[in-house]
Amino acid sequence: MPSARSVPAMPVFTTESEREVWARLVATLRDDDTVLAGVRLTDEKKDHEADLIVLMPGAGIVVVEVKGGSVWVDGDQWRQRRSSSDVPIDPVDQARSSKYALRTYVEQDPRWRDSSRTRIRWAHSVVAPYSSFAEDFAMPDCPRWAVHGREDQDDLASRLRDVADRQETRYRAPSADDIDLIVDILRGRHLPAPDVMAEAGEREAVAERLTQEQAVLLKVTRLLHRVEVRGGAGSGKTVLALTQAKELTRGRGDVKAQRVALVCYSIGLATHFKREIAAAPRRHRPAFVGTFHELGRSWGAPDGSREDSTFWEEGLPAIMSTLADGLDEGHRFDAVIVDEAQDFADTWWTPLMRSLRDEEQGGLYVYSDENQRIFARFGQPPVPLVPLVLDHNLRNTTQIAEAFGPMAPMRMTLRGGEGPDVGFVPATAETAVEVADEQVEALLDEGWPAKDVALLTTGRRHPVQEERQATLGQDGYWRSFWEEDDVFYGHVLGCKGLERRAVVLCLNSQHTRERSRERLYVGMSRATDRLVVVGDPADVREIGGDQVARRLGLG
Q: Quick one: 513 exposed, middle or buried, by C-beta within 10 A (0-12, 13-18, 19+)?
């Protein structure tokens, strides 16, 4: 049987009388009529609430005030029995003031005003479904036809249509198009949509707080001079390394300020460190911040070709060792901090140790994750280190951390919060880049800002990355990671220690290569909030194992 439209479809009512009147109207009004329930409106004068609004094309709009229980008039005062007491009420004024407030709100909305619509009929009425009113009842502001008691309920729909035909007859009756527009207007305008960044921002704030809480570990190291901090992806190692570099440089209490070097292998991570240090107070800035190779250049070592691996692995470290021996006291360090230490070769540790003022007692603080060892280097610091373990993942959502968890070096406690499911899109190595580009567009459509999105490859570099590196140079390319409001295109080899809120990981390697598992681990863990993996399901299973495959939904 046809019935009127209700907005919302299943309202929640505070009284049974409102629910009963709503149900009766929805069942007996015409199928092109609409009933709005529980509409609240605030203007400069007061807060208004319309129990029901009945919108009837060809007739008018009626704002209905519903009063349950016993309702009567004592002299010129309306009263209502509530529990065991009688209270004064003014249902007519409630309906009338709500009517005018709603009409003003609708007519001031740009969608109504800009369409050059003229005023339509608005009316108001009172329904008291359990009370009785004499046929000759009348009050100056409430004629009998405007109030509907117990004996009027069976005919309520036609009575409200009659109310619309009696009030404001000098204005036109609304059309069906008018009704639809009014419903849209009373839903509001420019309403906030679900915002992926709101949840991501909240998770980031929690992660920052947890990371700072974790920094209590640094207090332990004040009396230790040789420490290795081990932890999986997302455990906050990089933040701790940076914090320790600042604190050692500044000194505190009985711990004197030190001359500190903060060193890593990756240009991208070094660029991040430099940006963070530049924003710190001057007394917190370490003496050196940068890559191992930049440290050599600062001592006078020559540059080498990027293709000459022998120079970087053997020649440069030997040159740096000799230069370190010749450093004067003012250019030596009290402490060296190494982040992503698993990237360092055996030969690289010698010049670092020789650059210390006290090679026997000078500080050496190493941050590492063996599962991110994606280069064929297996160096170890030449001195014993006290191990400290970070076993809490603070940066990745639970969904992302669980996906790469089987590849992590240890079982981690996941504290990054809930987020979207990890996505997997099948593609061959040949088509992976094209499919990954499509997934980037999909993330932008979801609402992720371009500056929070990265596409990372495991094989050949993305054409956009190649173009930017050729145009901007290595330093400019890595500055764009933070300074450009655009999608970042990178390779897992260069992104350790870095993160993006949303990452498309493109498995475009043409064959399973050495340390592919580590590349998969690094790439998946770069996403803090949203991760989409694009690649061949068989390759994922071969590289990551059955557990990773299952967690990516591959059965």
A: exposed
